[in-house]
Request: fold
Amino acid sequence: MTATQESPDQETQAYLPDFCAAGTLFVVVLVAELVAIVLTLAAHDTPGRFLIELSKSSFFILWLVLPGSALLCRFKRRLESSGKTRAFVLSFVLLLAMCLAVAELAWQLTRIFGESLIIEDTHTGFLFRTFAIGSIVIALAMRYLYISSEWRRSIVLEAQSRISALQALIRPHFLFNSMNTIASLTRSDPRQAEEAVEDLSDLLRANLRSPKDRTSLKEEFEIAAIYQRIEKLRLGDRLNIRWDIGDLPMRAAIPSLTIQPLIENAIYHGIELLPDGGEVKVSGKRDGDHLVIAVSNPVANVGRKTDGNKMAMSNIRQRYELAYGSRASVDVDDGADTYTVSLRFPLDEAAI
Amino acid sequence: MKVLVVDDEQPARDRLRQLLEDMPGYEAIGEAGNGEQAVRLCTELRPDIVLLDIRMPGMDGIEAAHHLNTLESPPAVVFTTAYDEYAIDAFEARAIGYVLKPVRRSRLEGALQHAARVGGSALSEVAEQPGIETRRQHVCARVQDELRLIPIADISHFQADQKYVCVHHDNGEHLIDDSLKSLEKEFGDLFVRIHRAALVAVSRIDRLERTPEGKVRVVLRDDSHDGAKQLIISRRHVAEVRRRLKNV
Reply:
């Protein structure tokens, strides 16, 4: 539990981008040049002098920007450790102070290299202009970084909530019915009740594992078999499952807990609604460097609504998309008499 | 108190029987595995209370309860359910008895006592709650003291008499208590009103034709028991019937 909570926190703590990275520096320089162009365009209308003025202001702005990046790079961790809002305020103050220091330094330099470097302003005027422009631009930049970090954080949170939704795979209906079965067996057949409790525990344990984990086909089918045993107690002769999976390489990897929910769906939406029950077919085959596993069930055609399984199906789809991207597919064949879900995914024997 | 236990799962039925055995004053007189059986056994065994699972194959508990309610002296119904948020909300609102699985003895005892006091009623309102599958798959005709279930798929049309509605179906005709209006509301996607006093199954309509007097009538398909049947469509319903037939 702690492990899953820590990592996203570390992710969200990175409010500021890494200013030591070449990519970030390139963007910083680019933005600096754009600001220089804007300032020059706005200030100078003398024809022919644009490029000279531009090179002067970009020279000065790069002077501000590069040490600024260096500062943020150096103090990133310390700034971020003080909390989100404070990190941005502190960065703002730090950068502005540095701007003023550089402006003062530039002013002093004009006095040393008097002929070649001229700033057409008074001392305080120059400092004030640097201060005003600097604070506006830095404030804009900080605002932008703040919003983009918020945006990143919301993405992380969304992913987290999706993962926890994926984890909630066990249907309450199944859980309570199983408990009821066990309560009944405790009197009539204590030994079977004992086994049912063990099976249910194994199933719950498998459900509580991190859903990112992949598992072997062998383990996945074991879970499915445990699930079958529990449901069999409840449904008796109405439930039959035919396993046709002999050709599958049992060491191959599969996103964990993606077969059992399919069987659960087949029972909940198929077998349970048929007065005489029916047969769930689980078949698997190897297709080149892919595996295809299909689960099908007979359909009760009494015009019942079947929107309940969309949740589980979209979960499974997401899991396969996360794990294999476009190399995997989850297909549903909603026929008149049978409902079949086919999983197709790359064969990967080495991973487990 | 005679109790009928209805659940599609054997262990669940066993559990209820076990609990009832421990309760003086209550006796399990029978078991049923689905709604149809429950309705049949009820007319046979006359239980005072029915413990009725909601989710069952074929006819579910809600529908069975509706049919039971049409009996002259309906048994009190206590629903049993594992997890059914909507239904539970609805029951709570109407103070109808229910017990949650796994069934607790004290809870069952309380529900049975309550049911014996209140009797089975207020169900029609529950069925109108969102999330509960209300559409029946049968209509229920009372023949003397027995309930006869007529599958919706077997029905060709409903015809209103003065007081009753007559169901014309593959195996004959029966009178039912439902009003034409409520039937139209419930099965509006399968049946179409052709005049003030008749609803016809859209799937049973073979064609429309004009009578010599200039009226329009539907001709029902021939597979009904008494050969091709014709029913006049009232003028104000012709357009609607044509529209429905076009969409089939």
